[in-house]
């Protein structure tokens, strides 16, 4: 091993030890006051997740207790090793929907084979996430548009709603299929609607909305479920043909190693990447959002590691894939949580509540739970964000509806792939088509600013043209930039000096450098001198490395606009300046004026 690689290996070992250490940075923030707030928030969260965990497990096609196991094990591990002080992980609607769509292709939901595949998929998801975190790939998430999640979430909400509509009406239909197929089955069996089920659903929904209106911190889901259960007792629901939940097999997760075979790994690998990616998008967006609100530091790579470890360890304790929950995280913050102790204590409180309430699960009517899930699906669609996107951006609208329609018409896990591809396509298109414009000075609030001369119909200097480029100058953008330069030069006519502002250029490669060299040579052959305005030291270094400065001349490179303008005005023809009435630049004061 060379001496050069030794420090890097030591640094890598230190980084891994820090990321995986059981001694977490947030330990130093603990105090009696902080613990009191965390424990209070933890109890509130436990009351909320009890019905949610059951509902999400049903969405995932798993027995109810598996959602509760996930809300305990995954929550504890992800909170302990994650990066967010506030975020609560566990079962989520989007992940549950994708789990169902992925695993139901290979086994009947609820069966032992299905459960085994779901647990194996969770282990694969965790392994992918942990590897991504250790490889420090958190920054790649930034390249995916938020519109992907918006469209995907809306599609997941439609699939969830379609899967629960029959249950809320008391209709028993075949499971599986897409949104259209599920809705068609319900339509075909509308004549089988159970009036008792409808009454239970209405009572559940009314109580849920009423409690939430009174105080969002109250356990509205628990109270609504209790109201639906009481209505079921009053109506003698089981004897009226209303389906009821079975007693939970166990409230304490057992250690069970996932079954792994090459054929299963091959079949589930595409879905594992989809679930892992969706989970990380959810977790990082939630974690970053709360960190910005609270002005906390946030390490997306550490969050990925926390999510990966949560899913890996959870898969050995009968948990399925989880991620950050916006609802529980928001409630956590509102309830006074300060550290991950709140999420960890919520899992402990959940276990205590389950030991007390588990015997009463058999009194819960399926229509009551189905109604809660329908409400969750409705809340999952961000109508305000979709409206904002449609009004403000055509490209983001394409991403939203491309992702949404793929999830509705084809498959939910395919929707995320289509959304990512659309997102990257939009990104590449924008980077290959940077803005190129001609600027001219004007005064705003008493100070000189340069604005787009053609867009704002501003006067321009007859001898100096100031061109500006915003975006990367690399192989994919050179053709567009060259076309724009030619177009703008045709509009502006010939000048003595051309100032090219590269302040907005953060990246330049060999193709971009060759373009600049050609522009400099062509302009000089036509009697036009070129000045470059470059403020980024890295861009200056690349211009020197690619020999652009050799052809330009050190005297024609400037870090500040005022210096470049002063040099350009000084070189301007005094005869033309003497007849010019515009006097656009402050520097024109030193030139002869018309008498």
Characterization of the model:
The chain has 595 residues and is α/β, with parallel strands linked by helices. It is built from 23 helices and eight strands. The strands form two sheets. A six-stranded mixed β-sheet has the order 4-3-5-6-7-8, with helices on both faces. Strand 6, helix 19 and strand 7 form a beta-alpha-beta unit. It is elongated and about 100 Å long.
Short description:
The protein is α/β, with parallel strands linked by helices. The chain has 23 helices and eight strands. The mean pLDDT is 89.
Q: In angstroms, what separates the terminal alpha carbons?
A: 78 Å
Largest sheet: 6 strands, mixed
Mean pLDDT: 89
Return the structural class.
Answer: alpha/beta
* Shape, principal axes of CA atoms: elongated
Low confidence ranges? none
Q: Enumerate how many helices there are, as a single number.
A: 23
What is the total tally of β strands? 8
**Order of the strands making up the biggest sheet:** 4-3-5-6-7-8
Radius of gyration: 31 Å
Keywords:
595 residues; alpha/beta; two-stranded antiparallel ribbon; 23 helices; elongated
